[in-house]
Design goal:
Blueprint (H helix, E strand, L loop, with lengths): L1 H7 L1 H26 L13 H31 L7 H27 L12 H32 L15 H29 L12 E8 L2 E6 L33 E3 L2 E4 L4 E7 L4 E5 L4 E5 L5 E5 L5 H8 L6 E5 L11 E7 L1 H9 L7 H12 L16
Parallel strand pairs: 1-5, 4-10
Antiparallel strand pairs: 1-2, 2-3, 5-8, 6-7, 6-9, 9-10
Helix pairs in contact: 2-3, 4-5, 5-6
Length: about 400
């Protein structure tokens, strides 16, 4: 009967199934590793999601077993007319042990992974963003660690005892004023700081006497970024979503003269210490322009043009020397889960000197390529012939 009850227990049955499935997956992974040609014969533990779920359940099961053993021991002492386990002392000691383990974990996290919290800012506004981040992070870390020390220390020091009685404190106006006013002041300062920082980033007007920003058009769609640079005139041509075709991917309107010399690019190349304005839009779903090294993120929204202005301050070559990584590259990512091919939405961003930028620019192909010219001629050929019209692209002019 006892064995039958054990089988009918849903929790234990689920635990058993997870144990068997987890064991089989670990063994299968080890077998695959051992069978792979050229692989190390030493079996490796498969560290996937199921493995950690299984490990968590094993720990919970072990804690439950230890708890039951202590309960049985406590009942045995009481049956022998002895004093049972002082559970208040046990819980207080566990709280203290948890506090020590937590503080050790915090120290380990900062000492081992602290340098990986933020890469070095490679933009002018990035330093201000980092100052905001570290200010907010420092305040929250100090408050968090302080409250946890007080919480678990008080739970240990003032644990239940037959020698004293707890004091009931239903209300205290002074304490409530302190914990309401103090956070309000801190949050107000942080919000104001953030407001002026964000306002300076999203200012649409270039500073007086400052060269105009370089306009770069970024169009997101599933699952790629389309990049368009202005030509020699320094102006981007207009776009119209009704003109989007397989060849004219972003719908450039060639009735606008500024469109004729626009440049199509596969890699985003930026001159160092020059103001850059990214004109951002999406064609299908919401995407997000994300360049972590430049502290840059802005949503790309269908039908709603957005933009982001920034000034890169460290060239790719300089960053490679600082990090001692010869293959380092800045990247543009999509920071919205926009579909199954989301991981494909990335481009290399390269920061170079002004001379290198101009040289790269001179080697780029125009957006108005031969295929697009052919498409426009074919579209025009379906219309009635007009006298004196020889150039099928004349309507663009």
């Amino acid at each position: 009967m006892a064995f039958k009850k054990l089988i009918n227990n849903k929790i234990l049955s689920l635990f058993g199934v997870l144990m068997l499935s987890g064991t089989s997956m670990v063994m299968a992974a080890d077998a695959t590793t051992a069978a792979a040609p050229g692989s190390d014969s030493t079996p490796s533990v498969w560290a996937g999601v199921s493995y950690y779920v299984l490990l968590f359940l094993v720990v919970c099961f072990a804690v439950g077993v230890i708890g039951k053993i202590l309960q049985v021991y406590d009942l045995t002492l009481k049956l022998q007319r002895k004093k049972g386990i002082k559970w208040n002392n046990v819980m207080g000691a566990l709280c203290l042990a948890f506090l020590v383990a937590g503080l050790a974990g915090v120290y380990w996290s900062f000492s081992v992974q602290g340098s990986m919290i933020l890469p070095e800012a490679a933009s002018l506004h990035g330093k201000t963003i980092d100052t905001m981040f570290w200010t907010t992070f420092g305040i929250t870390v100090v408050v968090f660690i302080g409250t946890q020390i007080l919480l678990f220390s008080f739970a240990f020091i003032y644990r239940g005892s037959d020698k004293r009685k707890a004091y009931y404190l239903p209300h205290n106006n002074t304490i409530e004023k302190i914990w309401t006013v103090a956070p309000a002041i801190v949050l107000t300062v942080l919000v104001i700081f953030g407001f002026f920082t964000w306002r300076s980033i999203t200012n649409t007007v270039d500073a007086k006497g400052e060269p105009a920003s370089i306009n770069i058009d970024l169009t997101g769609h599933q699952f790629a970024w389309e990049v368009r640079y202005p030509g020699k005139d320094g102006k981007l041509g207009m776009k119209n979503y009704k003109l989007v075709t397989g060849t004219n991917k972003v719908g450039v309107d060639f009735k606008d003269r500024n469109s004729l010399d626009d440049i199509n690019a596969d890699t985003i190349v930026l001159p160092v210490n020059k103001s850059i304005r990214l004109n951002i839009i999406a064609q299908d779903v919401i995407h997000s322009v994300y360049m972590p090294n430049f502290r840059l993120q802005m949503n790309a929204v269908p039908g709603l043009p957005t933009f982001f202005k920034f000034t890169p301050t460290i060239t790719t070559a300089d960053m490679r020397n600082r990090l001692d990584k010869s293959d380092f590259e800045y990247h543009l990512y999509c920071n919205k889960i926009c579909g199954g091919g989301h991981y494909n939405m990335q481009k290399i961003v390269r920061v170079v000197t002004e001379a290198e930028y101009q040289d790269w620019l001179s080697h780029q192909k125009p957006y108005l390529n031969d295929a697009l010219k052919k498409e426009l001629k074919m579209a025009d050929a379906t219309q009635p012939q007009q006298s004196g019209v020889q150039n099928r692209l004349a309507f663009n002019n």
